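Hey, resending since the last one bounced:
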Amino acid sequence: MEEEFIKKLLKALEHKKVQKAIQKIVQKEDQVLPYYESQEKDYQIQQLTVKLQQIHQDFDKVTYELQQANDKAFSEAQKVAQLNHRINQIEGENNQLKLALYKEQQSHDEWRQRAEQAERSLIKSQQVITHLESRFVGAEAAFSEFLQLTAPTRLALQGIFKGYSIDEFLYCGIQHENIEPLWEYIKREILEDRVSDIACLVGIFNFFFEAHNKVYDQPLFERLSVLVGDSFDEQEHIRGTQSKVSGMISEVLFIGFRNKKTNKIIKKSIVRV
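The structure tokens again:
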């Protein structure tokens, strides 16, 4: 039966009308398929175009952000460079200030040492003034004796006592460097037997010797111990006028003194033997 159907079908295909009908059907299918394919292609192209536009937008955005980042990085780099430059300036200024501070500290130390020395001198001067004030009566008496000296004697003492006011008298007499010259002048007067001013001169020396020693916590000098009746000793005594070569001391004319710390005799006592 199938064979019969196939034979009829093949025979029908040989008929011209059938062949024309088949050709029409095929032509319609050929026209429909390209249309649908074209629609699909257009859709795909549209989708790709949208994606491409999105990619372009993303690219532009990333490019903009990158440019912003680069600008920011450049700005930050400029700031870093400016900060480094300022740091170098500050370090230079700091080094200059350190050098200036070092110099100022050295100068300050020098002035501080001078100030301390001046303060010590002031303290000593104040001690002298305090002592002299406490002994003002003695100072007045010593100055009175100075005024009683003869004109030649006062003239000879101008190297020690400069001026004739009590202030100048006290200031000069208390100076350490004037103690020994005053003693030497009195010694010469005694040994040359110029006795008219000796009592006043010895009184003046005794006042300043005691005042000078009281300036210090520990006195620098002390008077020698010498009494009438002691044996004459050339290590400690100087013979005055009208003295024997040796023997007992009959009169103490002027007491010498020694360095209290070293016990060295600075000035021998002048005695009559």
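DSSP finds seven helices and six strands in the chain.

Sorry for the duplicate.
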